[in-house]
Design a protein that fits this description.
With 376 residues, the protein is mainly beta. The chain has helices spanning 2-20, 83-89, 266-271, and strands at 24-32, 38-45, 51-55, 61-67, 73-75, 96-98, 104-105, 109-112, 115-118, 127-128, 141-147, 150-159, 170-178, 183-192, 196-197, 201-203, 220-223, 225-229, 242-243, 255-256, 275-280, 288-294, 300-306, 310-314, 338-342, 357-358, 364-374.
Length: 376
């Protein structure tokens, strides 16, 4: 009886805390860039107490606090404590919006409507993540919004014709929403005044045990894909799609990230671990499950849903212990993983891949959801 009363009191308290947590979006100053542009930090909170902090510098998700099975909150994304660090140290693109083209374009060249465009070569002999100053390094215009009951922030950016070598004045809008279903939803739209190519994504490094809390090798991951995109040694697709069955790339059933990552496999060697695009089952353009990760000590689950044809699963292979994160811990190799929903790499040079051409007059639309829950 006593126990029952205690449980009842606890439940009552929990429901009050749930009600007490308001759905809010607030803005605070976050500093200035070296050229004097003002940067802000937007805090989104849902009614279950989940909290996302996003800055309009690079559209970076600075922190994301979600509960474990005991309602203990932890920040599950890697990152830094201040703007200065993001301005000077964010080579791994932590938490950032990536554009115009997420992933690689071979030799930084592509031809569209008979014109050859030359982009920055910033990754070996290839172009990576939009170039020298991609969308991860520009100041977006931010605005707090409420879509229904969910707090959101809308980020807009005009990328001028010729920026980083890409054609067309491109108007981009990205909305981050923290829903009451415990989802961080990202809606991307864009229009151009000249035909161009576009492949937008989000580059958070997740660690569901909490950032700074060890490596991610014990996370159980499943990826809803029967095929992946094999690459050459420079991580440029060969053009074929390969069946995952019988390879270390088969994540149809939940498997520990570390279970096969060091196997003697050519593709794993090329990627220095997992750093590949999986071809998500189902119809591109429709919302479907891309992947899921589960961390047993916390019970946290993250499910990724998207309208994109692919997801780049990157296991933080290039983190090398030179960066110190938010909780003062050094980010060693494989202490975070990314699910970058996107089109396949080098699509502008691969006629058989789903197109990344955005024509004048068309509207680019893409949605990705990171949904959090727990297993008891
Ligand atoms: C992507 C690339 C990786 C690496 C990371 C950031 O995932 O595919 O090779 O560049 O971004 O370091």
């Amino acid at each position: 009886m006593k126990l029952q009363r205690k449980i009842f009191a606890l439940l009552l308290l929990m429901s009050f805390t749930a009600v007490a947590a308001a759905q809010t979006v607030t803005r605070q100053d976050y500093g200035k860039t070296s050229t004097g542009e003002y940067v802000y930090l937007y805090t989104l909170q849902n009614s279950h107490g989940l909290e996302a902090k996003i800055t309009n510098y690079g559209g970076i998700l600075v922190s994301l606090k979600v509960p474990d099975r005991n309602r203990k909150f932890a920040d599950v994304v890697l990152g830094f404590n201040d703007l200065e660090s993001y301005l000077t140290k964010n080579d791994p693109y932590m938490g950032a919006l990536i554009g115009r083209y997420g992933n690689r374009i071979a030799k930084g060249r592509f031809t569209l409507n008979g014109v050859e465009y030359k982009l920055a070569v910033n990754n070996g002999e290839n172009h990576l993540h939009g170039g020298i100053k991609g969308f991860d390094k520009v100041v977006w215009t931010g605005r707090e919004i409420k879509t229904g009951t969910s707090p959101a922030v809308a980020l807009t950016y005009l990328s001028k014709d010729g920026e980083e070598g890409y054609p067309g004045n491109l108007n981009v809008r990205v909305v981050y929403t923290l829903t009451d279903e415990n989802e961080l939803k990202i809606d991307y739209t864009a229009t151009t005044d000249k035909d161009t190519v576009l492949n937008l994504t989000h580059h958070s490094y997740f660690n569901l045990a909490g950032e700074g809390n060890g490596d991610i090798l014990n996370h159980l991951v499943s990826i809803n894909a029967n095929q992946f995109v094999p690459t050459d040694a420079g991580s440029i697709p060969t053009g074929e799609l390969k069946n995952v069955a019988g390879t270390p790339f088969d994540f149809i059933n939940p498997t520990a990230i570390g279970a096969r990552i060091n196997q003697d496999d050519e593709q794993l060697k090329f990627g220095n671990g997992y750093d590949h695009t999986w071809v998500i089952n189902g119809k591109p353009g429709t919302m479907r499950v891309a992947a899921e990760a589960y961390e047993a000590t916390s019970g946290r689950i993250m499910r990724v849903l998207t309208t994109e044809p692919g997801v780049q699963f990157y296991t933080g292979n290039f983190l090398n212990g030179t960066l110190t994160g938010k909780s003062g811990t050094v980010y060693a190799r494989r202490t975070g993983f990314c699910f970058e929903t996107q089109h396949y790499p080098d699509s502008p040079n691969q006629p058989s891949f789903p197109t990344t051409t955005l024509k004048k007059g068309q509207t680019y639309k893409s949605t990705t959801i990171y949904r959090f829950s727990v297993k008891r």
